[in-house]
Amino acid sequence: MTKVKHLYKQILTLILFLTTTVSAQAINVEINEFGICLVSITVEINEGLQSVTLPIEPIAASIIALTDGRVLPTIYENNTLYVILDKSSVVEISYIANVSLVGNAFHLIINTDDNLTLRIPTLNVILLTLPKNIISFKEEDGILTLVVRGPQEIVYTLRIQNITQTPTTTPPTVVTPKPDYILLLITGITVVALASGITYVLIRRRKVGDIDKLLDDVDRSIIRELRARGGSALQAELQDSINVPKTTLWRHVKRLEKLGVVKVEKVGLQNRVTLVRDVKV
Description:
By secondary structure, this protein is an alpha+beta fold.
């Protein structure tokens, strides 16, 4: 075991000498209704062994790097992702951010000096601090979109959903609503340790009506196209019908697979996507 660790350190040392650091072209951070942060990065990487400094510390097990619809081999060490490419490509990196929970407040640490786009569902999330270095902002359909420059710390909490009842025979009474969101499941435990597990449980136990709330326009387009094709289609057929980049389509297909909406099977050299769970779109 000691020899293996020593060899691993030697490999990483060699990587540091051989790699070229790559800067992100676009960084997007989305806070979902449960307070979990999903980070996506788009970078153009030359062939060979390259390194990408991640703007926000990840949960390593959630990292996925895609190019041309295929998953790339990666090594993660000390907030740096190492990627090997056989040709220059645009790579999409996505992961769950390592967000800590202190009391009822989530703390998101942004380490980069670059600009990033932050999307917040205002019906579910309340900012507890005013972000610094705001370049632009807009609010549309309940989503606050901020373009900010790091480094900085974003602190937020989840909004309590009030449930009201109108009594018929007794005078109205004031009832203090109890929080019914994910904080009750992870009180006292950091999102670092449980975010992957929580995401899996939420996905697997979610009812059809709830999954609908997690879908975006691309997800819905994929589901509609699969329905139109009898419930199954090759990835190339979906690509011909849905006007998005190949890597974006593949990322959404894998997301739907994790949600239990579709399954992906290898057919020769192609991927077949099959609708296994009908959801409202």
